[in-house]
Amino acid sequence: PRPNPRPAHTLRPPHPDLPSQPRLLSVARDQEDGLSWSQPIVIPGYRTTPMNLGGSRLMIRGWTSKIDVPETFCFWFSDDAGVTWSEPESVPPLPDGRTVITDVSPNMLIEGPEIYFLFMVDDTTNEWGSCTVLRRYNHEEHSWGEPSVFGDEEWRGFALTSEASLVRAANGNLVASFRSGRKGPSNLPADKWRGIVTATSADNGGDF
After folding, report:
1. What share of the chain is helix, strand, coil (3-state, %, to 5)?
2. Which of 44, 48, 67, 74: disulfide with 62, CB 3.0–4.6 Å?
3. What is the pLDDT of residues 114-140, one digit of tens each?
4. How far apart are CA 137 and CA 149, in angstroms?
5. CA-to-CA distance for 166 and 183, rounded, in angstroms?
6. pTM for the full model?
């Protein structure tokens, strides 16, 4: 049968709008290029994204309940290719107290023990009320570097960014792609975020 393209999200009763039985997130493993799959393995979290940290070490990032951003963003780790998972590790707010947010689809750059995370945070300096922050995380030491806000006030007012993805180009530059509040297709069936903007850095994220 054709697989369901939508992930199963954890739903927590007894909210009156929810079914009486929860649905669970799960993963399946394959070692034959997709020709055979293991039985599904239930994983923790809601709106989670898997990340391959090398070998059998995996990480998932996401929330712990069905509301989009009800509490602290969390990480879970597996050292046995997803068979078992750690307790959740909470992602801390920025040093100034602002809570960080990201979503299911953005791609985070992984280079050795370091992950480059791009987070949406509140920003009162522009009309859209948000901006994007780059913060490096060491998944071996479970430690965070200092956050770096994308752009000056003029840049942020032009770009109107929130969540973002990051890759490294063949020439070594970092390339970021941002979800933006700039005008996009008027009939796009989405929320207020309409446009996409990109920025590059030739100094490993010092300036975009």
Report:
1. 5, 35, 60
2. 48
3. 999 999 999 888 777 889 999 999 999
4. 15
5. 22
6. 0.79
